[in-house]
Design goal:
two-stranded antiparallel ribbon; 2 domains; 7 helices; 4 strands; f41 fragment of flagellin, N-terminal domain
Length: 268
């Protein structure tokens, strides 16, 4: 029996340190919800998790781009619905102005409303969405995935002759002018139908891209969760075990430290 070197106490202290360290790590995992609380916990897993987190950020950015582009298209169609109403009324006025029982004064009254509606359509052509023109005919490239791939969203141009002939040039104060206006408004309505179909195709494609990004985001989140998120049930079991070992180790260290006192019995 020796006094200077208490092997039992040293072993108990070493075991207690290991249990305390493990208990502290379990506590950090449970409190943070992550099983990687430091790079040393899982270096490879941390690297993969960082890449997945970065990819998730890019997916969210692409989703925002697609959502904004969808709002842009919906705003376009909202305006064009009103343009359709205006052009339909203009077509009615042009046809009504062909009534042989109407005088020039009567047609002048029709022309006032016709001109006002044409001015409205021309004003719509100048509208914008967050500073981006809605109807200048420009094709917009929308980023649709985290790799930067794009979808070309066909533009709508309300300043083409198909529209301006009816909204700016035509005058229904004369019978011949009214006849021409009917033809021009019909062309404008046909062009409008084609433009709204393009908008519908844009919205449909953007919807597919949005659904695709949602699925990708969910799958990336699930993959990252397997690496980074703590299994609370399993970690709680580990925490309970380590807590018991710390308490037991503390008691055994105290017991081991008291053993040298038995030497007194040999020299008393």
């Amino acid at each position: 029996m020796v006094i200077n070197t208490n092997i039992s106490a040293l072993n108990a202290a070493a075991q207690l340190m290991q249990s305390s360290t493990s208990l502290s790590e379990s506590l950090q995992r449970l409190s943070s919800g992550s099983q990687i609380t430091s790079p040393a916990d899982d270096p490879a897993g941390l690297a993969v998790s960082m890449q997945l987190t970065s990819a998730l950020g890019r997916v969210q950015a692409a989703s925002n781009n697609v959502a904004d582009a969808t709002s842009f298209s919906q705003t376009q169609d909202g305006y064009l619905q009103q343009v359709n109403t205006a052009l339909s009324r203009m077509s009615e006025l042009a046809l009504a102005a062909q009534d042989v029982t109407k005088t020039t004064s009567d047609r002048a009254l029709y022309q006032q409303e016709y001109h006002a509606l044409g001015s409205y359509v021309n004003n719509v052509a100048t509208q914008s969405f967050n500073g981006v023109s809605l109807f200048n005919g420009a094709t917009l490239s929308v980023t649709t995935d985290p790799s930067g791939d794009t979808f070309d969203m066909a533009g709508i141009n309300l300043s083409t002759n198909s529209y301006t002939n009816a909204t700016t040039v035509d005058n229904i104060t004369s019978l011949s002018g009214a006849v021409l206006a009917v033809t021009d408004t019909e062309k404008a309505i046909n062009q409008l139908a084609s433009d709204r179909a393009n908008i519908g195709a844009n919205e449909e494609s953007l919807s597919y891209y949005s659904n695709q990004l949602t699925a990708l985001s969910n799958n990336l989140s699930a993959a990252n969760s397997q690496i980074a998120d703590v299994d609370v049930a399993s970690e709680s079991t580990t925490y309970a075990k380590d807590n018991i070992l710390v308490q037991t180790g503390t008691a055994m260290l105290a017991q081991a430290n008291s053993m040298p006192q038995s030497v007194l019995k040999l020299i008393s």
